[in-house]
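ingest -> validate -> predict -> emit
validate: passed (alphabet ok, no gaps, 347 aa)
predict: started
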Amino acid sequence: MKAARLNEVGAAFVIEDVPTPEPGPGEVLVRIGGSGACHSDLHVQSGEVPGVVLPHTLGHENAGWIESFGPGAAGNGFEVGDAVVVFGGWGCGHCRFCLGGREQLCNTFLWGGMGPEGGYAEYMVVPSVRHLLHADGLDPAEAAPLTDAALTPYAAVKKTLPYLVPGTSAVLIGAGGLGQYGVQFLKLLSPAKVIVVDTDENKRQTATELGADVTIDPRDADAAEQIRAAAGEDGVAAVLDFVGIDATMALGAGAVDRRGIFVLVGLSGGSFPYSFFSFAAEAVLTMSNWGTRNELEEVLALARSGRLVSTIEQHPLSQINEVFERLATGQIPGRAVLVPGAPSTDD
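emit:
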């Protein structure tokens, strides 16, 4: 089969012929219909994420069709040919996090595309049918980004819901691929006024079209004052930072009000000084790491209902390097999906 391999840190992906994997006991072979190009894989490619053993096939946002079952895996409500969405936060299945339904917190290097081979290929092995969900009418190429680009902000927004009572405001920083879903979830699930902060005028316009009540350019000298004015006297009850650099964390930390919550989602490695006097009284600072399988089921239900707007562009696997170059420079307006079976414009 064809696979896009990352052979060394800092290198381009290489399309190689590799053996098609065979599913072992309890495993499932999935023919990939779409694999989302995720910004976190840029951090792997650059070496910022330690521990990924190279050469490796990345790709953790996946959907496709069941090709075959390993011994003992057949049944369980799935059949060969079924269109499926793959939950990627694989865990050991035995620890308290896994047994509590939060497998994505078990061990990052059990995730598909991080330790096991991922979906930037024609086929991938999924270790258990418990990681599969029926697509039920969703196109796999359209559904693949829902497994992370939508699931991650959904889980993050759910953390803020107890704080977002009527009259409160939520600030969302970064209206890229994940942030655009975040805007929608805030509007679908909460009564809060939604204030979106982004440097890109086009992304601010997209956020407005998706329901944002106010948009702000953080480069404005009075950006912090604009946030306070938009929030009004009840203040900002929740901040979600989808960027995670020093500047956005400082802006968000300064915006959150007493007994509010700041949720860090962005992986850019920023920080800010956290002390008794640097944060609002009794406010909570936390992060959000992917989401659960059940939360993915909820995301898929929203997608099937037609209430989620997805901006997705599809590319053949052979264009992976061009896609990642555009991803690194912020030129992808929503989400890019690599489709192994798509005809290549290079042929």
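The longest helix spans residues 177-189.
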